[in-house]
Write a structure and sequence with these properties.
This protein has 206 residues and is an alpha+beta fold. It folds into two domains: 54 residues; 135 residues, Sortase (Sortase, Chain: A). Helix content is 25%, strand content 25%. The chain has an eight-stranded mixed barrel with strand order 1-2-3-4-7-8-6-5. Helix 2 links the parallel strand 2 and strand 3. The longest helix has 47 residues. The termini are far apart.
């Protein structure tokens, strides 16, 4: 009995050889296309991962060597290039030297942070704290707040909220979902019993 497959019994040897070669070429072609498809998929995945990495790198600013900040509020003439020192809430020395960034809150280079800064309403004469937040109540929606880190990078914010809270209300120190903000705090007038809170949201630098 012939060893040819059933479908080839009616073909000559030459025809059968040509058929086998054609079939082999088709298999090779399909295999090549399959490998090419896999290669394209892997390549596209690599591109996507590289893009994600670049976006991540661009969105996460590196921390400067020093945590010191400087604060400017264009609408308030007294608040220009004011030094901001990081420390605990009760650090009177740092508060008297300018403004105080609470060390249990975020920094401007941290995405989704609430940078909480307290300043005196009255302060001390001949220091950077003198009347630093005296006119904080005059800030309105859309006014700019600018922070600058130790490496000269600027972080611009726009005021979106203002409220009065009692001193024991710590909720104003918490981050706000979906936003990177700065919170400015000072005492209320005339009795200094409550806290004036002004919050501003980070905007892209021009």
């Amino acid at each position: 009995m012939s060893e040819k497959p059933f479908e080839s019994w009616t073909r000559s040897d030459n025809e059968d050889t040509a058929y086998r070669r054609s079939k082999a070429r088709r298999r090779l072609s399909r295999g090549t296309l399959a490998l090419l498809g896999v290669a394209l998929i892997l390549l596209s995945v690599g591109w996507v991962m590289a893009d994600v990495q670049r976006v991540g790198d661009a969105g996460a600013a590196t921390s400067p060597k020093s945590e010191r900040l400087r604060l400017s509020i264009p609408k308030l003439k007294r608040v220009h290039d004011i030094p901001v020192y990081t420390g605990e809430a009760g650090d009177k020395e740092k508060l008297a030297a300018g403004a105080l960034h609470l060390d249990d809150t975020g920094f401007p280079w941290d995405a989704g942070s609430n940078v909480y800064i307290a300043g005196h309403r009255l302060g001390y004469p001949r220091t950077k704290s003198w009347l630093v937040f005296w006119n904080l109540n005059k800030l309105e929606r859309g006014n700019k707040v600018v922070l600058e880190d130790a490496e000269g990078r600027r972080y611009e914010y726009e005021v979106f909220d203002r409220e009065i809270v009692v001193p024991r209300d710590t909720s104003v120190k918490k981050p706000v979902a979906g936003r990177s903000i700065v919170t400015l705090q000072t005492c209320t007038l005339p009795d200094y019993k409550e806290r004036l809170i002004v919050r501003a949201q980070r905007v892209p630098n021009n």
